[in-house]
Amino acid sequence: MTTPSSVPVQHVPVVIVGAGPAGLTVANLLRAASVDCVVLEIESREFIEQRPRAGFLEEWAVRALERCGLADRIVERAPTHTEFEFRFERTRQRFPYTELTGHHHYVYPQPLLVTDLVREYADVRGGDIRFGVRDVELHGIDGDEPAVSYTDPETGERRRLRCEFVAGCDGARGVTRTAMPDASTTVARHDHGVGWLALLAEAPPSSDCVILSMHPRGFAGHMPRSPEITRYYLECPPGDVPENWPDDRVWSELHTRLAVDGAPPLTEGRLVEKRVLDMHGYVTEPMAYGRLYLVGDAAHLVAPIAAKGMNLALHDALLLADALAAYCGKGDDSGLRDYSGACLRRVWHYQEFSQWLSELLHGPSSGDPFRAGAASARMRRILGSPAAATCFAELYLGKGTDH
Q: Residue 8: which pLDDT band, with cuts at 50, 70 and 90?
């Protein structure tokens, strides 16, 4: 079958644009529910399995994936974290969030999760995923016969997928975001006014836990990724560039900002990644228009201050997959009607917490005595009040954020 312009057409109930954690989770759950779908990804399989991204999974997310049969490797291989360390005014204070809540984090870098999900969907379940596609376009999403067209990377031919629904899982710079009409959506934005230099070091972690250090020269973070790899962050001006940060300057600043009495010195190693991340966020409301449903960063971006982005994407994906399966299997559209509202409750909780934590981490280096004083008051409250500490721990772990 061809269109008048001779573009080959295939029909499939759901087209998923983007093969990150969100898109692959939706695809796996639809496959398990016997709902046919096609995943379109502009990058190669090798690229998405190596792309450096987030590394912390909240326990609720792992338990949800485990119930779906998608977390065996995480549970078997991922280290768990039960506390982190605040450093400020040359002192160190452990914060035992598992002791306060009974829950923990898993450390599982996104490339490993993507590798697991691709293998399960494509290799084990025989799902249809098309890598390296170009010029993806959405058509008719406000009608009853939406479609997605793309250029086949091998033949150079245009192809068209007619469908009932499109899941937009292609991130902040993807095509599905731009398909949402301005008149039907509101985009709320916030700029935290700082940048983070994201660093990946071939060096063993210098502590057994995450370190969050507030320093007059700027925030510094230490995030264990594996026995051989450590993620570091350094606060820097927004719009800064990695070229301004030669290795000697990086290690000098890390030593200075993470220094506290009684702590072992940092273990240095080769820096294999340097990126500047401007700390900003946005929320698109609603997260659906017609037959298009946005998932993860395509709908909302949370600055990586509280490590919430991948967890939010998984939350969206789980809700959308359940809703699509209920509609395609039983004709029940209640989940699709409630999808945006159900996602946004957690999105706004995470945005608010990230904004609050940003003030805590960046206030001391803001140059504003009021913000610095407020940050100090927040720190004293967290460390001095069991009730405040428990509330903070629950927000940090993503507990109780759906209400």
A: confident
- Cα separation of 131 and 42, whole Å? 6
Which residues are bridge partners to 165 per DSSP? 14
Facing residues of 9 across strands? 160
Q: CA 311, CA 113: separation in Å to the nearest integer?
A: 12
Q: Tell me the angle at which helices 334-362 and 309-330 cross, rounded to the nearest 10 degrees.
A: 180
pLDDT for the residue numbered 224:
87
Q: Which residues, other chains included, contact 160 with Cβ-Cβ below 8 Å and sequence gap of 6+?
A: 3, 7, 8, 9, 10, 139, 147, 148, 149
Examine the pLDDT at 151 and tell me if it is beyond 90. yes
Distances (CA, A) of 107 to 72, 95, 205, 269: 14, 17, 13, 21
d(CA 153, CA 241): 33
HSE toward the beta carbon, residue 3, CA cutoff 13 A: 13
Contact 235, 195 (CB under 8 A): yes
- C-alpha separations of 380 from 94, 239, 356 in Å: 13, 32, 15
Q: How many CB atoms lie within 10 A of CB 107?
A: 21
The residue type found at 20 is G
Q: What is the pLDDT of residues 256-268, one digit of tens each?
A: 999 998 888 899 9
Burial level of 329, CB count in 10 A (0-12/13-18/19+)?
A: exposed
Counting Cβ atoms within 10 Å, is residue 265 exposed (0-12), middle (13-18) or buried (19+)?
exposed
